[in-house]
Design a protein that fits this description.
Shape: globular
Structural class: alpha/beta
Number of strands: 16
Strand content: 15-25%
Helix content: 40-55%
Distance between the termini: 46 Å
Largest sheet: 7 strands, parallel
Radius of gyration: 24 Å
Strand order of the largest sheet: 10-9-11-8-7-12-13
């Protein structure tokens, strides 16, 4: 039997133990994990320094180094995030439907843990703790396969969390960190459809496509976030400008940042010069169609690739459209099913926009940056799904459970 299959078997057995714990016991376990991170802060930060030095020596870029770096404040934030997860409502055992059939049997739909979750992720060591906390809170075992650039940090964090499991009398295989980072091992993990119930990749598009193309287990994924803002002819232009600046500039590297601006032709002469001035003041490069270039000087020509691009940078594609249906058609052609926004003063236009698009999140007069589990009231987020499976959009604790039928009778038979 291969090592990775043995680890997955052990995790499955431990997950069954976790799933039988009470809400109070799982919450107490997460509080103990947070305390363990605080107690081991020196060891974890020293391990992180090793990862940072290796990355620096390899010439890794500043953005990657920042994602990789821990410091006392960030690590304290990771521990506090575990405490926040501990306090979230427990979805396990929630009855979502309850009815009695004519023959007297009582039918309920009840949330239960998924089982074993495989998390495959890149540079951020905080994901080790965040993913473990969310999976365990929902009664699942978790197999963590982080990137090589954070291996020392991930190992130190996992060691602290596993100690808390053992001290609570839970097999520490419930949280399994894969330390063999060969691609062959990850491929084998993704084939274990009799042991792994769900895989969640978090990272760049290349990683997510690799997991999706090689997995034999269900995969929750989103390849990229090509998020659109459409400024309708009835929009409050100051409101639309605020949505645009926040959506593009507040955190351009986030998947919920805006990548394309669509403007109704009737308001484009007034809106686009204002938008261009505000965005350029903040360092944003504009790439637009001929109509945009006619209204704003020094706009680079936009190509088809620009409208399909997830820039994750201070670059914005712009297009002038003749109508709401034209805006919808553009989005339908280029959408990544992540987040779409309309700025409008007409309720009927908002309804038409929402009903025509199938993206995971559709917003009316609100920033795309709210497309986030915490901002939408989920408390915490393990990922974002643009896959139409049991979960669609930002994923919280409920997404780590499934609903099953529980039937109660008094001897009824079907005959």
């Amino acid at each position: 039997m291969s090592d990775i299959r043995t680890l997955a078997l052990q995790c499955r057995d431990a997950a069954q133990q976790l799933g039988q714990l009470s809400t109070q016991a799982r919450s107490a376990l997460l509080m103990s994990m947070a305390d363990a991170l605080d107690a081991d802060a020196g060891v974890i930060l020293a391990a992180n320094e090793v990862d940072l030095q290796i990355a620096h020596d390899k010439g890794v870029g500043t953005a990657m180094l920042d994602r990789l770096a821990l410091n006392p404040s960030r690590l304290a934030g990771v521990a506090n995030a575990l405490r926040e997860v501990a306090g979230l409502p427990d979805p396990v055992g929630e009855i979502t439907r309850d009815y009695v059939r004519p023959n007297g049997i009582r039918v309920q739909k009840v949330r239960v843990p998924l089982g074993v979750i495989a998390m495959i992720y890149e540079a951020r060591p905080n994901v080790t703790a965040d993913a473990a906390a969310l999976c365990i809170k929902a009664g699942n075992g978790v197999i963590l396969r982080g990137g090589s650039e954070a291996i020392h940090s991930n190992t130190a964090i996992a060691a602290s969390l596993k100690r808390a499991l053992r001290e609570a009398g839970i097999a520490d295989a419930a949280l399994t960190l894969v330390e063999d980072l060969r691609r062959e091992t990850m491929l084998e993990l993704l084939q274990l459809n009799d042991l792994i119930d769900l895989a969640i990749p978090r990272g760049g598009e290349g990683l997510i496509r690799f997991v999706a193309e090689h997995a034999r287990v269900p995969v929750i994924k989103h390849y990229k976030g090509v998020c659109h803002l459409f400024v309708d002819d009835s929009a409050d232009l100051q409101l639309a400008l605020d949505l645009l600046v926040d959506g593009k500039v507040s955190r351009p590297a986030a998947c919920n940042s805006l990548e394309t601006l669509l403007v109704h032709a009737d308001v484009a002469p007034r809106f686009l010069p204002l938008a261009a001035a505000a965005l350029r003041q903040r360092g944003v490069e504009l790439r637009g169609d001929a109509a945009t270039q006619a209204l704003v000087a020094d706009v680079l020509p936009a190509t088809q690739d620009d409208y399909a691009a997830e820039y994750l940078d201070l670059i914005l594609a712009v297009r002038v459209v003749d109508s709401l249906p034209a805006a919808i058609a553009h989005i339908q052609q280029y959408t990544s099913d992540h987040t779409e926004v309309i700025a409008t003063g007409t309720a009927a236009h908002a309804e038409q926009f929402m009903h025509a698009l199938r993206s995971a999140v559709v917003m009316v007069n609100a920033s795309s940056r709210f497309s986030d589990g915490g901002e939408l009231g989920l408390g915490a987020e393990i990922g974002i799904s643009t896959t139409r499976l049991h979960s669609y959009g930002p994923m919280g604790l409920e997404a780590l459970t499934v609903e099953r039928f529980v039937v109660r009778g008094e001897g009824q038979v079907r005959g």
